[in-house]
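Researcher: Let's try something more involved. This one mixes different molecule types, so please make sure each is placed in the same coordinate frame as the others.
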Amino acid sequence: MLIFEQAAALVFQPYVLGVILASAVFGMLVGAIPGLTATMATALLVPMTFFMEPVPAIAAIVTATAMAIFAGDIPAALLRMPGTPANAAYVDDAYKMTHSGRGDEALGAALVFSAIGGLFGSIVLMTLAPALAEVALRFSSEEYFWLVLLGLSCAVFVTPSSPTRGLISLLFGLFIATIGMENPSGEPRFSFGNLELMAGIQFIPAMIGLFAVSEILRSVTATIPRQKIPRSDGHGIFRTQWLNLKKYPVQTARGSITGTALGILPGAGADIAAWISYAISKRFSKQKEKFGKGHVEGLVEAGASNNSAVSGAWIPALVFGIPGDSITAIVIGVLYIKGINPGPTIFINDPQSIYAIFMVFILANLIMLPLGWLAIKGARPILSIPTSVLMPIILIFCIVGAFAINNSMAGVVMMLIFGIIGFFMEENDIPIAPAILGMVLGPMLEQNFITSMIKGDGNFLHFFERPIAGGLGVFTIAIWLVPLAMLLLRRRKKMAVAT
Amino acid sequence: MIKLSELHLGVLTALGGIVLLFASAHFVALPGQAYGAGTMPRLIGWCAILLGGFMTATSLRHLPRMLKPHLADWVRKPRLALSALASLAVIVFYILFADTLGFIPTSFLALTALMLLLRTRPLTAVLAGAVTTLAVYYGFSRMLMVPLPRTEFLSFLG
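Model: All components are placed in one shared frame. Result:
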């Protein structure tokens, strides 16, 4: 109880509440602007969090991301432009509802079911994370090696374009992680005698480049012009939602569970959760034919799913120090900078901070309702800002943000280089998320691999000697081999039919 | 921007792997151990070679289509290509001149120029450039104490 009171004291103070409110508004703004993602909101927030205590810093990120994911539904419903990739799954339904005079119902459903999904994910986070942490305390380098490898494998397999492109991205991220002196023998690698590179690639400028600068480049080179915004006065947003909740309780629960589960899976974030939930909703719906034509059912399920995934992704991040998505990858970087080492010991060494983070999750999802209502009402002016004004403003924020990490121009140079790389990758359908996971998990993979190999005297079978490590190892290898076996079987069947 | 096919990406990945193997050949192992600084880069190198080889081999079936790189739609539209270049040029301009000119003039010039190039009306560009520059300057420099580049002749602003 004392820990709970200490956590409450950390959260319920004017400064932290002010930070939560300000970052909620910021998240809403970023989410509502098409092309700007929740990850970008996090990347832009990081330089600000440098000047905060750990709890307000994490509170700012939690709130902004939750708000951004919901706010992405506003341009989706009004402009047919999903604000973030996590809102893309049901954009047609939301937009067609708006055009048939049900815009408020669409936006209301997005808001209410986002909050429900977010709250569900937060409750799972609060109950599951401490229990998992107790198990994780018994983990050694072998278990962590397999866990990291499992996370990296999932990131590749859930790549929307193709697993090979996901793998290219992952290898690139792992290579970036090898730059510098932070390796088992402390030898400078790929630094070319450059002092900045000897310290390794600065994570935050690289992140700002990969996400924000590449997004700016994409936005200024977009060939499709924006559409006119239909009128939506924001009245009756909540009126129809009680009926929707009574009509679709299964969909709400299923979306929340699917989202949380996919959020926990390293590499699969809110984007994938929304797509899968929408597909599940359609598969089990009694009105399949209405999907994509202005039907609220898929919106309810996928809307709950993408926000619950945001909370779910924090479970592996806090318990194992393994990010569930690109947002938690950034968060792990922030936690390290703040002197909090994510992992099971955090629950022993710093329980009040953990419970404070849990409280922030609940708070963020609750204030989403009134703030979301205000955002829906005030959406038109935000969405009317032309790209030609908005993008240069965001660019200057990126520059200053990258500079502020070390107060050095090297951060800006790194941001520029990674911005170009990120743009090139996205133009060629190479996803960025596996690269980020590679950058974050690379040092952990290397350290645990080499430690285990030394412990096992070079015998790879040592990785299977401990029961949990063995189980995780078999599971990880099965994940690699099953798709290959399926592919071979399918080919053999085809050949048999042909002959 | 060139859009690369599976074949191009495969060849590039394999080449990257080979370069990585050569570049990490001289990394020394931990004393008395077979592992060290070179282990991870070499593993990544071998994975890249295998992946690149697999991608190249599987894309050979569609050879004529895979050989020619495609251009993105925006490359054919000079205005959009110029916008992309201008966005990058603004960052380069900032890197080169911020320490000499100071944050306020560099940021204002960069913002205004980019907005004008993106076809914002001149008055809007100048106003938005000035307001943003001052807001960012006061926000980061005064409130967050980030030592943004500054010069003496505009010191009265900060």
